[in-house]
């Protein structure tokens, strides 16, 4: 299984690594080539960085006041030295391109602790340590269920499907049903051409088992295609994960602030508070006209022309951009309108005392519960300030429908309800927990006016029917972003797509 995973994960990485390391080459034509890039998230930054190094003229349009997109670190509002991640918070070891960029910019990494044997499992009113859960000492009140762990179940039902991934014809079968539908077949004993000959015939699951899988892995993924579930399992099951010491946003900011003699920076290439509103053709077959407005004043900004355009914003945001007649064909507009995005919400609480460490010896990892907060993440070693008892707790990390229920609340109610759940999870009196609370912040990506969602997630048939039109360039309009890769929700997917789009533009411009 490990060999299959690594083979799948290495696809194109070696070539992209060479482009990141050595560059695209040098643009030698006498005429200048102007590139407009919509969105200064990781994909847009990588593409701009490579193209500018190659000698092309780059303009990044960023609707917000910062770079990084869904790589966002929260600092303001917390005590000095404390920070939390509203978006991307870990880098798996196989994500070599992202790790290479961290090394290039001299960023310090520390291990991200995903799971901890002393963390808590609190389901159906039963509380235990993760170590007890892994030993099968409690089924946490699951009806009609054996003491299988969610991890054991997922290994048994997904591991045999990994070999499908290498066979294009068989792989597409996994795109035809959802992850949830596949699991429920083991409850009802349904016959399925995917399971025949691949999964043990005597494997039976209960509704309690499926509930537990939802608590541990996220129920939102049940709506995703089985192909997405297999791919995500392949990534999450691979080795150590890392985080950037000081905050994940140090990576996108490095593209702006780097002063290395052998690197370029994009400090003069980004137009902030510039929301692209229209992309039109100046005349058939010629350059594009990019129109934008200031996101604060709502006043139009000067139009600019571009020989090539890279659309590096999420499709959920591009639905609000108007494309002129014959700029994009109907099938591309269909994809922009219909690609599925999931939401995610994070609620971070600051406490005057790190009670989870002092009282319960939990250092890093996550606790899991059926309470609305779902996942609680503890800061890994190295994240806490020196000589201070204060600390931040990622009190709630949810996605899908669970996330939308938090998104409907205002900020103060999110903090209040999350605090109540944290107290119950840790078997504390609520008033004791309240006395330790310093403050809190939250972020719901569905409510983010620049992204309108957290990450792309293929539903059944979307990979087969939409994906080719998600990433392929069309008449000097190129597409980048995690949604245009097969590493949805990961920085690596955005980086890959940025390299690919930059290579496409450079090749066309140099022809």
Integer count of domains: 3
Distance between the termini: 43 Å
Proportion of helical residues: 25-40%
Rounded average pLDDT: 90
Please provide the count of β strands. Answer: 23
Largest sheet: 7 strands, mixed
Radius of gyration: 23 Å
CATH architecture label name of the largest domain: 3-Layer(bba) Sandwich
Q: Oligomeric form of this entry? A: single chain
Assigned CATH class of the largest domain: Alpha Beta
Look up the CATH topology of the largest domain: FAD/NAD(P)-binding domain
Q: Name the strands of the widest sheet in spatial order.
A: 8-7-18-19-20-17-21
DSSP helix count?
19
Instruction: Specify the CATH homologous superfamily of the largest domain.
Output: FAD/NAD(P)-binding domain
Describe the structure.
By secondary structure, this protein is α/β, with parallel strands linked by helices. It has three domains: 205 residues, FAD/NAD(P)-binding domain (3-Layer(bba) Sandwich); 117 residues, Guanine Nucleotide Dissociation Inhibitor, domain 1 (Orthogonal Bundle); 101 residues, Polyamine Oxidase, Chain A, domain 2. 34% of the residues lie in helices and 20% in strands. The chain has 19 helices and 23 strands. A hairpin with a 6-residue loop joins strand 11 and strand 12. The two termini are 43 Å apart.
């Amino acid at each position: 299984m490990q060999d299959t995973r690594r083979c799948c994960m290495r696809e194109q990485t070696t070539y992209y690594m060479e482009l990141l390391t050595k560059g695209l080459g040098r643009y030698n034509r006498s005429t200048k080539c102007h590139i407009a890039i919509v969105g200064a998230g990781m994909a847009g930054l990588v593409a701009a960085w490579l193209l500018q190094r190659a000698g092309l003229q780059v303009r990044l349009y960023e609707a917000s006041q910062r770079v990084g997109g869904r790589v966002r670190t929260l600092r303001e509002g917390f005590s000095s030295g404390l920070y939390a991640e509203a978006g991307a918070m870990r880098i798996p070891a196989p994500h070599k391109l992202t790790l290479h960029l961290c090394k290039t910019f001299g960023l310090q990494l520390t291990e991200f602790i995903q799971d901890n044997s002393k963390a808590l499992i609190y389901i159906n009113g039963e509380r235990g340590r993760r170590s007890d859960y892994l030993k099968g000492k409690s089924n946490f009140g699951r009806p009609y269920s054996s003491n299988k762990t969610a991890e054991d179940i997922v290994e048994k039902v997904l591991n045999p499907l990994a070999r499908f991934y290498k066979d294009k014809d068989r792989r597409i079968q996994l795109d035809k049903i959802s992850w949830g539908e596949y699991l429920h077949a083991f409850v009802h004993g349904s016959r399925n051409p995917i399971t025949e000959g691949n999964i043990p015939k005597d494997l039976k699951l209960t509704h309690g088992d499926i509930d537990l899988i939802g608590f541990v892995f996220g129920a939102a993924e049940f709506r995703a295609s089985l192909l997405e579930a297999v791919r995500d399992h392949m990534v999450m099951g691979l080795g150590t994960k890392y985080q950037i010491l000081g905050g994940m946003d140090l990576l996108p900011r490095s593209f702006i602030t780097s002063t290395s003699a052998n690197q370029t920076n994009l400090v003069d290439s980004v137009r902030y508070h510039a929301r692209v509103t229209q992309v039109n053709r100046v005349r058939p077959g010629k350059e594009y006209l990019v129109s934008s407005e200031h996101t604060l004043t709502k006043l139009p900004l000067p139009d600019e022309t571009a020989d090539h355009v890279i659309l590096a914003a999420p499709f959920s945001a591009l639905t609000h951009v108007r494309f002129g007649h014959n700029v994009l064909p109907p099938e591309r507009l269909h994809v922009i309108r219909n690609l599925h995005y999931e939401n995610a919400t994070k609620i971070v609480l600051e406490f005057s005392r790190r009670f989870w460490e002092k009282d319960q010896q939990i250092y890093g990892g996550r606790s899991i519960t059926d309470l609305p907060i779902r996942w609680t993440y503890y800061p890994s070693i190295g994240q806490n300030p020196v000589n201070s008892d204060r600390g931040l707790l990622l009190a709630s990390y949810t996605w899908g429908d669970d996330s939308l229920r938090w998104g409907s609340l205002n900020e103060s109610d999110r903090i209040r309800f999350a605090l109540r759940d944290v107290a119950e999870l840790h078997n504390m009196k609520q008033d004791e927990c309240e006395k330790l609370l310093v403050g809190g912040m939250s972020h719901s990506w569905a409510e983010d006016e620049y992204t309108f969602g957290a990450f792309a997630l293929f539903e059944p048939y979307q990979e087969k029917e939409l994906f080719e039109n998600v990433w392929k360039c069309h008449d000097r309009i190129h597409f980048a972003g995690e949604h245009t890769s097969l590493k949805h929700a990961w920085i690596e997917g955005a980086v890959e797509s940025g390299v690919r789009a930059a290579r496409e533009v450079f090749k066309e411009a140099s022809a």
